[in-house]
Specification:
The complex is a heterodimer. By secondary structure, chain A is of the alpha/beta class. Chain A has helices spanning 6-14, 42-54, 87-106, 125-140, 150-156, 184-197, 241-246, 310-323, 372-385, 399-402, 408-412, and strands at residues 35-38, 60-63, 79-80, 118-122, 146-148, 172-176, 180-181, 201-203, 208-214, 217-223, 226-229, 232-235, 255-264, 274-277, 282-286, 292-302, 331-342, 349-352, 358-362. Chain B has seven domains: 14-133 and 137-145, Roll (Ubiquitin-like (UB roll)); 156-285 and 415-465 and 543-565, FAD/NAD(P)-binding domain (3-Layer(bba) Sandwich); 288-414, FAD/NAD(P)-binding domain (3-Layer(bba) Sandwich); 467-535, Arc Repressor Mutant, subunit A, CATH 1.10.10; 566-614, no CATH class; 620-801, Probable tRNA modification gtpase trme, domain 1 (Gyrase A, domain 2, 2-Layer Sandwich); 813-830 and 862-940, Aminomethyltransferase beta-barrel domains (Elongation Factor Tu (Ef-tu), domain 3), CATH 2.40.30. The N and C termini of chain B lie far apart (95 Å). Classes of the chains: A alpha/beta, B alpha+beta. Bound molecules: flavin-adenine dinucleotide. Residues 38-44, 63-66, 70-73, 75-79, 207-208, 236-238, 240, 244, 259-261, 295, 338, 340, 364, 366-370, 416 of chain A line the site of flavin-adenine dinucleotide.
Amino acid sequence: MEKYSGFNLLKHALTGHRRWPRSWRSPEPKPRYDVVIIGGGGHGLATAYYLAKEQGITNVAVLEKGWLGGGNTGRNTAVSRSNYFYPESTRFFEHSLKRFETMGRDLNYNIMFSQVGLLNLAFSRHELEIFRRWATAIQVQGVDCQVMSRDEIAAAVPLLNMSPHARYRVYGGFMQRRGGISRHDAVAWAYARAADNLGVDIIQNCEVTGLEVGDGRIRGVKTSRGAIRTDKVGMAVAGHSTAVAAMAGIKLPIVSQCLQAMVSEPVKPCFDHVVMSPMVHCYVSQSDRGELVIGGGADTHPSYGQRGNLPTTEAVLNAVVEMYPTFSRLKLMRQWGGIVDIAPDSSPIVSKTPVTGFYISTGWGTGGYKAIPAGGETLAHTIAHDRPHPLVEPFSLDRFAQGRLVDEGAAAGVAH
Amino acid sequence: MKRTAQRLPHARVDPGKTLRFRFDGRTYEGVAGDSLASALLANGVGVVGRSFKLHRPRGVFGCGKEEANALVQLESGGYSEPNARATLVPLYEGLEARGQNAWPNVRSDVFGALGVFKRLLPASFYYKTFMWPNWQRWEGLVRRLAGLGIAPTSADPQKYLKQNVHADVVVVGAGRSGLEAALATSRDPACRVLLIDEQEEPGGGLLASPAAADRSWLEEALREVAARDNITLLCRTTVNGYYDNNVLAALERLSNHHGPAAGGAVRERFWRIFAGRVVLATGAIERPLVFPNNDRPGIMLASAVREYCHRYGLTLGERIVFYTNNDSAWRTALELVDAGVPVVAIIDLRPAVESELRQRAREAGIALHLGTVVTDTRGRSGLRRLVLHRLAGPGDALEAPAGTLDCDVLAMSGGWTPTVHLYSQSGGLLAYRDSDACFVPERAHQAVTAVGRANGEFAAPLNLQPQWLTPGVSAEHQWVDFQYDVTASDIQLAARENFVSVEHVKRYTTNGMSVDQGKTSNVNGLGILALATGRPIPEVGTTRFRPPYHPTSLGAYAGIELGALYTPFQQLPAHAAHVAAGALFEDYGAWQRPACYPRPGEEEEAAMAREARAVRSAVGLLDYSPLGKLEVRGPDAREFLNRMYLNNIRTLEVGAARYGLMLNEAGIVIDDGVVVCLARDHFLLHTTSGGATTIHQHLEEWLQCEWTDLEVIVGNATTQWATLMLSGPKARAVLAQLDGDIDVSREAFGHMQYREGRLLGQPCRILRASFTGEVSFEISVPANCGLSLWEALMQAGEPHGIVPFGIETLMLLRTEKGYPHVGADTDGNTMPQDLGWGGAVANKPDDFVGRRSLSQPVGSDPGRFQFTGLELLEADARTVSGAHILTADGESTAGYVTSAFHSPNLNRTVALGIVADARDRQGEEVTVFYAGQRQRARLIKPGVYDPAGEALNG
Ligand SMILES: Cc1cc2nc3c(=O)[nH]c(=O)nc-3n(C[C@H](O)[C@H](O)[C@H](O)COP(=O)(O)OP(=O)(O)OC[C@H]3O[C@@H](n4cnc5c(N)ncnc54)[C@H](O)[C@@H]3O)c2cc1C
């Protein structure tokens, strides 16, 4: 793998960049792998990378039905944070955030992680009480969290609507300074390049159409490019989790819904943080290119249509203009949707399953981008040792049967 | 670029009406009918913008929404709009615009020097560097250089409307095909046709046609359209989105053509269109050719040169050269010559061109360079000269230099791209048509058809020979996406690095991601990728088009629903009385309710203390109208409620009330309230105030999805009744004074009883329940009688010292009493046993929602957070809801303070919480943590005020 650096960029400039090597190969599928990962999103690619890097398993294939990173990994708003409510969640996401902080150097790929700080706003007395509880939870867990007053918020977000005519009054909020945004494509590509370099076969345009199970064990996968034998399959297919798990006869408590995101035309820097609020429901940040990146709630009905419909677009942008009245004359440039996999408690599932050798990573819902490093690492560990990684023990599939939910949805409201 | 002294005749502008405008600080004149772009061109302004990445000087290149270069900052202050397309801005008197992304201005931008470093900045260079020490060190610099216009900093003075419309047929595009479609479908008088066009006037491409036949056809067609009652014509309206169920979104520009002179008028109208059938007559967009330095000001689309000539009457240059790979540009060139425009040469990369065209061109005095390509362009701020080479064969290497050619305008045509964006958004499939090198609609997914050029039906054959980039010369300066500075070499680099899916290439190079969303760059990019990867174009595929088709103001999506109209709020029936009493209003769900009633100069806490003391010592009145009131009725109502509530509803007698807990399937407490039995088959559910709607939905879900056999109806009567809570030791005395037929004496009307009757001549419902711990009457009258009841009670209570009290005071009172408030003193894990209701669960013989989950292991896990009272050990200590209780080691959370107030009646802090194993740990000391401070507290039984409950029976 040729190293990426300013020096090498200069060197290649001399030859007109005509000598850069491929970022990854495009191998033909082999008849047998030690581990097959379904889904070439961030989670699948990271899992393959950590299998090779940390578990020493390199005979691995990642099967992607389209192009790598083309699912939610390439469609999200790229927010990373670790200010979750429950300790189980915070431990996991803080581990992931730390990985984000060093990912550029670890994978030798500038994922442009910019820790602009993530501000949550409360719009009522009751919300403020919940926020106090939430902020204290984060502090108790030793994660950075700064409670901010209305005035401090006004100074940090000058374009925020503080007028007496605003429908809701800003009561206060809290900020995680280490939270931020990065380039989602870069994260997928960085893992793909690094995994490929360690010998992982990334096979694009290869859809898994069936799972072979015999005597309660995984035997292989059927794909649009032929059958592949393997003893271990890791599934990381986000919105398609229920469909793929059903191929192994497993019914998952997952609902698939479309979540939209959108960007404005690019403008010069005017918005310094990621600002979100559960009540006036939208969140906004500004990308390095200058686009305002906007997200909100999911479309209201279950769907596999990666589009998103008008009422939700309107609702999200309505909230944006109510919160930032001067954005009114900016123009929406592009809107899109991804199918998110939502568990009843809005927490992920990284787990073994009743089928031996079949491991799943799902339930990432509206907030699994930030989890890509830790999700990959823990799924790789779980696959390699057939035992959950300690960080994901609370996130096993059987928690639903036992009622041991990690109800972030109920605790905090938003989860991006 | 040449200044035009006089407009050509037949142009659709009014040369007699001059309009003054300013661009980059200089004053110019245009004429009525101009666009900002045509006016700038008329004044010979060559450089109007700078590119995104390299700050290359750029001139107007198109004439419509495909424009990638002429992006300007329009107006200032609240009227400011960044990234306005000069081609789409109709000129008006006093218009002010500035070039963007440049300093000090677009003519001489110091950042233009970046172009020198182009080599160092190939596609996605940033992913390969800026890693040490970390990205953030570099980011500030990069961020400042990126971005285009400047976001306004003052509020938008104008408004936006939204409107819904239903139509049997929606025709998008009022060019020839669209007009024909509208006239044909509207022949059936019952068919409502909506005809929409994005330009300032209908006519589409016909507006740029000099042919008399076209002009008269258009006039005739428009007369006919006007005469048909069933056609609605919307101009200045761009259809932006095509969604599921044939829903379209469109934006109508109502007053943009007046600029700031429109004042606070409605600027734009957002149309939600519900279409039976859609006809897309959206035309086609010309493609640029890709050759070295093809981004120099003066190089334009042939169709744009044509439009500026015929529609705006501009000659543009003194030596205009055409460069093409298809026949359409020849016809344009000939038309221009006819109009008196100096076309000096046609360069065509095809070795052979139809003899008739050649013949006519020669006759027109045009020099012909066939089988020739442009391999470079020269000029400082504008185009001066072209460097030509002969091609060895189609798409092949260069053969021999073919000299240079002086010119000041180059009109290029690389073919046509049907405008299939909406078709693609609708889910329709596209197919690549080799002969015209373009994507055309193939299979519709909704009720939509494409017609005319949008469907790839060109008036005359193009005889096109694709050339995706110029062979034999470096690809490094061959621009593909003018806006984001993507060159052919960037796409080749992507392919080299194995980014071979179109989506990868788009993201890796940013080709097509700029404000024009690839309208002129997508297909060229595909072609280059196909060459680089040795695949045919259909195999490379195309990216999916996403809304909006053309960027749309965020304000338009918001409409008028801002400020007070952002979300509807509900006012209490006695709102006027609360205002008069000086209430401090806050949002509680949708309701605006008095938190308390501070007197002038009185702090909030003091007001609450005063109100709370009055309730405990005399009497208070609270507008409790948001209290949920669900009526449940039917032969199976009792059975249904018995399944929904943890509590036994079977034994509830008529006229009696019972406290109840409702769980979800996971056994989590989601609501508490009082169930009143009005008749054997008729119940009234008082849910928590915030819960009325969700609990209603919860009930309906079980009825409609699970127990369809039960005969029950549920109605939400919350807003039909005003409910006032009269509470305090004098409550009974006050109520007794009012004219009514219900005996409210202690003997006749006990706690948790319910009566119906008349009060002040109105029907009324009275429940004796208590959330304050004092004798309370929850009196409901028809909503419109709420105010008069409030006034009557206040008057009757005056001698007893009655005060109005707010919801926060109620919270204080119930915290003193230790009554839990579901949602505040419970969380997403609270089960009934955590509230002390484990016994009730065990005793209930029947099944109920959530019961199964309660018996799971989690229900008896150690460390469950349980409801408890909290006593702070230090005198005068305070705490807040949101503080945490720590584990013994002080390292982690073992619970929260969920309610905390300063009690005026006990003169100390009263607090409730949920704490790990609290029910078994009563009396133990714990640490409370908030904002870095630790305090000691003791777990105590909730309810420190009047623990024996004597007040209730007083
Ligand atoms: C609009 C939007 C905004 C978001 N914003 C954020 C955010 O700000 N922060 C955050 O942390 N998270 C965010 N998320 C969530 C986040 O994007 C996802 O949780 C995360 O990307 C999931 O990664 P993944 O690898 O599991 O799934 P994906 O990236 O979706 O990858 C799954 C892959 O599986 C492939 N696949 C499916 N079925 C098959 C099959 N049968 N055979 C082979 N391959 C198959 C798919 O093609 C896909 O490429 C957002 C999501 C969306 C949609």
